[in-house]
Structure formats: C-alpha cells, structure tokens
Amino acid sequence: MFKELIEPFRHPSPELNLRAAKDSEGKKAKAKAKNWTVTLGRIWTYLAKHRGKLALVLVMVVLSSALALLGPYLIGVAIDDYIEGTGGQSWIQFLLLLSAVYILFSFVSWLQNIWMIGIAQETVYRMRTDLFAHLHRLPIPYYGKRQQGEIMSRVTNDIENVSGTLNSSAIQIFSSMLTLVGTISVMLWLSPLLTVLTFTVVPLMALGMRWITRRTGPLFKQRQRNLGDLNGYIEETLSGQRVIKAFSQEARVIQGFTQRNDQIYRSGFWALTISSFIPKLMNGLNNLSFAIIAGIGGILVIKGSITVGVIIMFVEYARQFTRPLNDLANQWNTLLSAIAGAERVFEVLDEDVEAKDEGSSVTLDHVEGAVSFSQVSFAYEAGGATLERISFEAKPGEMIALVGPTGAGKTTLIQLLSRFYEPSSGTIRIDGRDMTSIRRESLRSHMSFVLQDSFLFEGTIRENIRYGRLNATDSEVEAAAKLANAHSFIVRFAEGYDKKLSADGSGISQGQKQLLAIARAILADPSILVLDEATSSIDTITEIKIQEGLQRLMKGRTSFVIAHRLNTIRKADRILVLKDGRLLEQGSHEELLKREGFYSSLYEGQLKGESMGLGS
Amino acid sequence: MGLIFTFLKKYRVAAIVALSMLLFELAVELVQPLMISKIIDEGIMKSDLSVVWLWGGVLTASAVLAFLSGIASSFYASHASMGFGYDLRDKLYEKVQSFTYPVFNRFATSSLITRLTGDVSQVQDLVFMSLRFMTRVPLIVIGSMIMALVVHLKLGLLMVCTVPILLLFITWVIKKSAALFRVVQSRLDSVNGVIQENLTGIRLIRVFVRMSHEVSRFAKASAHLMKGTVSVLRLTETTMPFIFLIGNAGIIAILWFGRRDIAAGSASVGEVVAVVNYSLRTIGALSAISWLVVSFSKGRASAMRIEELFSTDNDAVGHTQAEQKTPLIQGHVEFNHVSFFYPNNGIHVLEGISFTARPGERIAILGATGSGKTSLVQLITRLYEENEGTVRIDGIDARKLDTPNLRDAIGYVPQEVLLFTGSVRDNIAWGNEYATLEQIMEAAKRAQIHETIEQLPQGYDTMLGQRGVNLSGGQKQRISIARALVRNPSILILDDSTSALDVRTEAALLDSLTDLSCTTFLVTQKISSTMSADLILLLDEGRLIEKGKHDDLMSRSPLYRQIYQSQYGEEAQHVQRTY
C-alpha cells in the first residue's frame, strides 16, 4: 500500500536542459515569434474568406462578454439595493431586466458557437483539400526522401489538431481576453484598492505559469516525437506482418513496441502532470484572492469605504478574472500544438511543385510516338551518375526492349520518360519536340505505364481497370481484360468484374494483379506504352499470349519493355543493353547476337540455364 | 466499456487517492461561500473585526492546503492514467500479434493502426479527465445542492429544482452525440483511407493523369467529414447556452423569493447571498460539461473499437494444441491430400495435393498465374492452415507442432519485398538477431548482394528508407533472400523471389544454394530454375497435375513441354493453338 502511495512521485525526473534553453532563448524567441505571426497570418488568409461572418461572430463575442459582465453586476445591485436595502425602483422591472440579460446572453453565445463551427470546419476542409491537391503537384523525388507515414500524419493528425483548436479555442481565447479586460476595468471602477489587492496574486500566477510552460513546451514536443516514432513502428510491423509471422518474430517486435511505448510513458507522464498544475495553480490563487477580498474587504466595509454588495461583486469578478486566465492557460498547450501542426502543414504547401511547365509549353492533341534520347545523363544524388550519356532513337510503332543486370538503370530511364525526374543533362525528344516544352499532363495522357509494383485501389475489379480511361464502357473494360488475359480468372469469381479488392490487394495473386495492371494500361489507349517488368510474376505461356495481343494492339504505337526473359525481348525491334548506367549495345536480337558482346553472353547464359542452374 | 476498465484495477490506489484529494479540494471550495456569509453576517453586520480576521485566516489556510493537495493529486491522476494507457497499448499490441494470419487479415491495417494509437489515447484522456474533472462536476453540483439546502431549505429547493431538467437535457445530448461521433469517426477513417491509398499509388496516379479525379474524390470524402463534424459540434454546443438559461432562471426565482423571505424575516441577507453563490457555482461547473460531453462520447466510441479487438479470438484450429516440441526440424515435408480455400471465399485454391520432399531436396513449383503456388508454400509456413488432408513435417502432423518452433526452422522469402526501416545489416540480421557480421556477409554473398552492399556509401550500415527507396527491385529481393539465409533454415522457401533478377545473377544465386543442406521450395516461372530440381510440382488451377524430374516431365507432360517451348523453342508462337 505504501509503495503504491509513493510510486507516482518516483518517476525519474524529465531530462530537460533548461539552461541551454535559456541561453538560446533570446535569439530563438525572436525567430519563433516571427514564425508564429507568419503561421497565424496564413491561417488568417484561410479564415479571411469568411470575413463578414467572422465580423458578426466578433460582435457576438463582444456582446456575450459584455452580458457576462453585466450579470454579476446586476446581482450585486440586486443584493445592495433590493435584498439588503429597501430598493429604489420597481423590483419586478429589475428582475425583468435581469431575465432579458440572461436570455440574450444564452442566445448570443449559442449563435456565436454555431457560426464559428461552420467557419472553422469549412476552413479546415479547404486546408485539407489544398494540402491534398498540393501533394499531387509535388515532384516524385519528394516522396523518395520521406516516410509515407510521416507525410500522412501531416494530412491527418496535424490538420485534426488545427481543426480542434479553431472550433473552440479561437472563440474562447478571444472572449477570455475580452472578459479579462472588461473585468479589470469594472473592478477598477468599483474599488481601485480592492483591485490592487486582488492583483497581488498576479505576479505569483505569472511566475508559476512561466515555470510550467517552460517545462511542458519541450515535453509535449518530445511526446509528439515519441508518438510519431511509435506510429511508424506500428505501421511497419503491421504491414510486414506476413514476414514477422513466418519468421516467428512476434516476441521481438513486441519488445520493440514496449521500448517505444516506454518512451511515450516517460515523456507523457511529466507532460501531463506538469501541465495539470495549471488549473490547480489557478484555483489555488483564486481561492487566495477570495480570502484577501473577503478579509480585507470586510474590514473596508466596517470602515465604511465600500458596501457589502461590492464584496459580493468582487468575489464574483475575481472568479471571472481568473477563469479567462485559467482558460487561456489550458488552451495554451493546444494552441501551441495547433500552431505547430499548421506549421507542418504549411511546410508541405511551401515545397516546390514539379518544376512549372514553361510558358511556351504546348498541349499535344496527337502523339506519333517517336522518342529520342540524346546524351542524357542523370543522378539521383549529386555525385554518382545513375545514367550516363544515353542516346538512342525509337521510331513510331517500334518496340524497344531494355535489358541489363539489376541496378543498371532501366527503371531510372523509364522514370525520365515519365518525367518523374528530370535529366541532369541532355535532351529527350518526343516527336522531335523537346520534352520539357510539352505540358507534363498532356505528355502523360498519351503514354501508359505498367509500373513495377502493380498498385491496385480499394474497389471492384471493374473500377480498377477503368482507372485507365474513366469514360470507358463496360464492354471496353472487358475487351481490355481479355487482351490482358485477365478475363478468364475474373469470371471465375462469383462476383466477376464486381469482385471487391481490398486495399492491400489480398485475395488475388501477384501475377493476377499484374494482369489487371496491364488491362488498365491497355484501356488507356496510349501512343506510347511502357511496361516495367510488367509480366515478371506471370507464367510464360500467358505472357506469350499477352504479347501476341499487345503486338496487334501496338501496331503504330511505340512501346518500351523492361524484361529479363529473353523470349520477350527477342521480338523487340530494338534492344537497348544497359550496364552500370551506360548504354553498352543497341540493335535487334540478331544484330546483337552477331556482335558477340554482352548481350550474346546473356543470351547464351539463359539458353544454357541448365548448366548454370544445376551448378554442382 | 467494462472490459477496458479492468486495466484500471492495477492503479486503483492512485486513482482513489487522486479522487479523495479532489474531494478535499472541493470541500474547501464549497465551504468558502459559507465562510463569506459568516464574515458578512457575524463580522461586517455586527462590525466585529476579530471575526473577519479569524475567518479570513481560515480561508487563506484552506486555500493553501487545497493547492498542495491539488498538486499531489496531479501526480496520482497522471500516474494512474498514463500507466493505464501504457498497459492497454502494450496488451493490445500483444493481442494483435497473437492473431493468426487469417484473423489478422480480417482487419484493415489502417484501422488497426488507429485503434492502437488514436483510440487508446482517447480512452486514456477519458480516464485522466474522469480523475480530474468528470467527478468534479457531479461533486460540485451535489455538494452545492446540499450546502444550499443546509443554508436555507426553501431557497435551496428552488435551485435543486433546476438540476433534473438540466441532467435530462445533458443525457439526451450525450446519447445523440455519441452516435453522431461514431459516424464522424468512420468518415475520418475513409478520409485517411483515401490519403493512404494516394500516397502509395502516387506514381500511378501521376502517369495516368488522374490527379483531379483523386482530388475530387478526396474533396467528397472530406466534405462528408466536415458535414458530420459540424452537425455533431452544433449539437454539443447547444448544451452550454441551455444550461445558462435554465440555471439563471433559477437565480431569478431565488432572488424573488429571497427578498420576500427577508421581508418576512424567515431568511437573512447572508443566506440569500450564499444560495445565489451556490447557484452560480453549479452553473459554472455544469457549463464545463459541453466539452466533457465531447470527450466522453468520443472515448466511448474508442473504447468500443478497442474492445472489439480484445474480444476477437483465434479460430480454434491447431495452433493452440501444440503437443510436441521438435528440437530440431530436419526438413522432411509431406503433403497428404491437402485441400485449401481462403476464409473469405469458398473457391478451392488447392485440391488434393500429395507429395513428399526429403531433407535437402530442391522442390520447384511451377504453374500458371493463379494456380495456387503461393498458397501451397504458405501452408508450410503455417500462415494458413489446410482445410482437408494433412501437412506433415518430419512425419508429424504440422497442426500438432509448436508453430513458433517450426517457423524458427524456416527461411521464407515472400513474393512482395518487405524490408524494414534500418540499416542493410539490421535488415539481414532481422532473420537471426544473434548473427555475427561474418554470418551476415556470408548470407549476403550467397544471395549475390555482398558486392552491391560494399559499394553503398556506408556499406552494411547504409540506412534503408521505409520502402528501401535507394535500391532497385532486384537488389531488394536479394536482401530479403539474405535475410532468410542468415537463419540457417532447414526449410527454405523462395516464392518467385528472383523475378527481378537478370538471368546471370539468378543462376549464380541458385548455384550458391546447392551446397546448403536445407530443403528448398522454389516457386518459379522459369524452366531454367526447375531443371536443377529434385522434384518439380506442376500445378494447374489448384490441382497437382504432374510431379517428377525435368526429364520425366518433358516426356510425360504436354503442359510442361509447352512451358519449356515458351521459353526456349522458336516455335513458341504456336503454343497458343495447342494450349
């Protein structure tokens, strides 16, 4: 029992470097304040759309704060004039006035909340959709550098943070400040002496608040970081569940989880404990000022300098005076985290979008499909080159195969063609036109890609294929599925094309996913088709059938194919052999075999698969 | 909600202490108006300064005491609620990890994540709030009512009358808004779902130029969420104005009757003042309810989502009935008339499969897309269980084996590459946490990735992003093969995990595996990989249509010959006619 009583006080004290914080405070404070004003200013630009309605809310808040002050004053008058004294005017009239004040107060505060919620939620909605739309304008390299979970938490958690604060805190903070100013003025008017006495607790309050917020600020940040860490860990271990189970590593991930949970517990305990001192402090000081007013006020009444009514009013005002302070203190942390959240949101919004299409950029109605690379180089990071001076030409209607060892730069070349990345030097031309002079979206709408990871959306099979061309009819969808050899497995499902696929695409095999991705690309009806290992998980017989279908379909269209199976490659009009980012050889299958270079050794290797696979 | 609060048991001492300190604080607050009425009636009215000093002093002392107990109660309250949250989160994660794979798949990953994070925090907040505020409101209300009745029965009754009306209204709001919050929560889920999907499929969306399509889809989900949020918040925000309205009506009544009673001599000025004071306190306490309503109904919804996980049980097949512990698995695998279908649809994925694999043998599994190859190897890993027939490992029914024990002996390379955040070294060592650097390098060499790793900027200590973005598809595949090899498995399963490798690397890799003593299952599309196998299993629509060595199948199986021709024969183009 004793152990349990003492336990809460035995938590190791938080690691806070207050001195370091103090030293850099001066410099940082300025930068921080500037950041805040910028952030708040940007939130304002969102709110400004509702300027008229906000002004009305503001009027309501002023009105309700005034009414909130009037209430206690009238009660003081009631006690002085009617309860204690004999009363001047009509008692009934006075009560009617009081009722009117109360009713009006309820009505006005109801109205202000209803309006503010509408404004706040509409604002959050716009911020959310803006952020989301912006994500679609960011260049692809942005996504290569960041964890998906991290980006996601900005659209979800951080926006939710802003939402919660705008709903309630905005009004509360404003009305708290108004009430504060109003209360102090009325108190000063009633009795300057008592006001000064009441204010003796203010320095104590300021000191206490400073002590608390200097600790809670870093602690809350620490907790958010720990929480983010835990979220990432959960996401990873849940999406990797198949591996964890098969490797029987449950105990190990549970241990990893406990470690992170521990960190949250440590920072969270102190953040929570210290921040909950705030209302206690306010309450305590409130009670203290209560005692001061009652005691000293009593003496003043006896000395005749004030009336009993003034004491009653003062007690009530003192409460009203500390309440907004209390509210402000309570709101402080949520306000801070909301500003931090908004900052994180704006950070994304400030990221440069995919380099703007130049002013002269054109929209193409038709693309023939001629593609040429001249002296194209590219590096993901400054330094090592991933592609070096690649030059080749593809005529409309040609099938180009890219071969080479893994890591040779085949996928990178495709990424340049899709303009996910821009070449560091050299030019890529489409139909003889510099690719950078064509609007990205226009360019992409004439191309169709089957990417390495065949991503499917949550939805029916039909919806997933139709993603290739949104206005395609059901029969066009089915025709594409037939061409991709997906039709036969689709109709085996009881629901057929209306079979729902879950978000992670479970329920169908990897190869079937690739078939659907191919159907989707076919439906898009492109001038240029790009297949990046699109058939790697598909059996070779089906693969051949798909190719035959594609050959018919691709008459007069250009296609790029990355594959390892040489029988796929063999039929290409031109084969590009890549190794370590360089274009070693190019030509048709026969030409390359004759040359007896890298390609022919690859080919021989595959034909002699027996001996190499057998090994021993 | 009952189940969840059993987690509070461990912290009941701290919780009780926190609550009793709260009581003390409250008591101080409640007697204050009484003391003030004493100062007015006995001190000021009778011009007795000593009474004023005395009660003023008592007021001050009690304020200090209440403050101290408030600080102490903060410690107890956060100790109880943080501990509660910690335990709940830990146990919930353990529970999720204890699910069998089919049960695990019943929940969407994103929904499990929110339950473990957001929902637990929500319930934890509720506990903390309860320990500090939730109890405060009823206590202030009840205390004020009692004190008001003690001070003056008739005037007190006036105040007490308003309370039932308010309570009725508040319960109605809570009920209604809890239901609305559940709706909001599910809409938030779908908004998050769209975001997650878009981030994962960002490249695809770009190349298909579907940005505006996705943005309008998101805007729709987002607008749906906004409407839901607005309607629930507008409901909860009516609480406060309503409470003020009714409460203030009570005050007017007290003033009216109070004045008459003073005139009649049945009440003192101090008594009227005190009752008015208690009314003001009650209204103040109740007005805090409008946001307590929000956190209470949110917490309720979250608690229900958590309890759903706790009450989910694994299907009572196998798994739990481990009777035998096999100290060392030799790698003898036998399928005896095994049939299998996935829980969510009744279509047979595997039907009547029988074969035997002896320790050290290489088994190649070949078949068309969707013929059941992956399902077959998953039965060996016990991610799923067969519906009919038996799978025997070393002659023992796999259902009777201790699953973790069996899995320790398996090296599994799934079709989809799953790497974890951390260095290359961490990722390989993930297969065997006691592996030395030498063993890790040995595995990497066998997986033909050692040289590539050496060329990375920090070699084995190079960090991989969440999705291993810096590496090509083939490089990632080889790391995940190294991860399986470092376990020194008795059974190695490669599920089409060399698809992104060029022919040479693949051949070298398969070659380096031949001197391993483990039983190897190789799901593949390539004849070049099957030629070296001791046994080839040829699957077609879930049935095992042929088994044997390469030469047997070449002579016996037309399908196998077709596959062979599709890869080697010039006549491959003609395959379609005969297939």
Automatic annotation (TrEMBL), chain A:
Membrane among keywords: yes
InterPro entries: AAA+_ATPase (IPR003593), ABC1_TM_dom (IPR011527), ABC1_TM_sf (IPR036640), ABC_transporter-like_ATP-bd (IPR003439), ABC_transporter-like_CS (IPR017871), P-loop_NTPase (IPR027417), Type_1_exporter (IPR039421)
Sorted UniProt keywords: ATP-binding, Membrane, Nucleotide-binding, Transmembrane, Transmembrane helix
Domain ABC transporter residues, every copy: 371-605
Pfam family name, one: ABC_membrane
Location in the cell: Cell membrane
Membrane-spanning intervals of the chain: 54-79, 91-111, 170-190, 196-213, 288-315
Residues annotated as signal peptide: none
PANTHER family recorded: ATP-BINDING CASSETTE SUB-FAMILY B MEMBER 10, MITOCHONDRIAL, ATP-DEPENDENT PERMEASE MDL1, MITOCHONDRIAL
The protein's name: ABC transporter ATP-binding protein
Organism: Paenibacillus mendelii
